[in-house]
Amino acid sequence: MNWTKSGSSFVAVLFFLIAVDQVLGLKNAFPTDVILMIYLPCIFVALYAEFRKIDVWPAVLQSTGISIGIFVSILWFVNLLMHMNSPQETLAAISRSFMAVLHGGFISTVGYFLTSDLKNQIGVRYKTDYVVFIFIAVSVPVLEIWFSKTVPAAYLDTTTVLLFGAPLVLFFALGRDQMSGSKFLRAVVVSMLGPALLSIVAYVAGADDPKAIGPASALGMLGLLYGAFCLFVFGCVMPSNLSNRKDLWRANWHALEIYALVILIIFAPPSILESFN
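The structure corresponding to this sequence follows.
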């Protein structure tokens, strides 16, 4: 890592923090749950990979930031929807959820600009490494459920699981010889897109029925939740090479697009013109 790149990254981070401080205030932008749920898992995975010499820490940050941002965003959003007392609280839920994605994107961006274009895998991952990575990934929803007192069943839905799992079943049916990280990521993106599109269709079709809105929105949100978790785990365990990084970077941005599609169509905040009416 050269000093020019490090210095430029430091200045960019400083600019980001100054801008966030002016808009939200650092204390509001970096609450304890953001640090605990988003930054610490990424940092733990990055430091572990660096310590075990299986990857460089910037590459791990690049691979895990966006996905964990989306994952935590959906966790928070579902939790807030379950506990809100009035429709007006939806805007606060959307704001908090977008904040999680912002932090995840910030982590990935810093990692991206600090990562050199290594073409070969740095180190070999053993079973113990996979166990550690998966443990860190699973600890995120466990902590959220523990602290928020949310029932785990809130994040489970049979229809979403079936719809999300269909492309993955087709992927595993390819056979070991034809499987690849690129194909897995494409399957995950399709698994996220299917519930999202069906969610929007169900929402529009049942717009006049308040009872239909909940199940319709849950379908898209939970599909995103499962997909983001898969992307985060893949970012932790994937062999570190340029091809995998590009494929994961592309999949993460597709996930962001699907996330924005669902949120802004089903939970769109009022526009400025609507606010003045």
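The first helix runs from residue 3 to 23.
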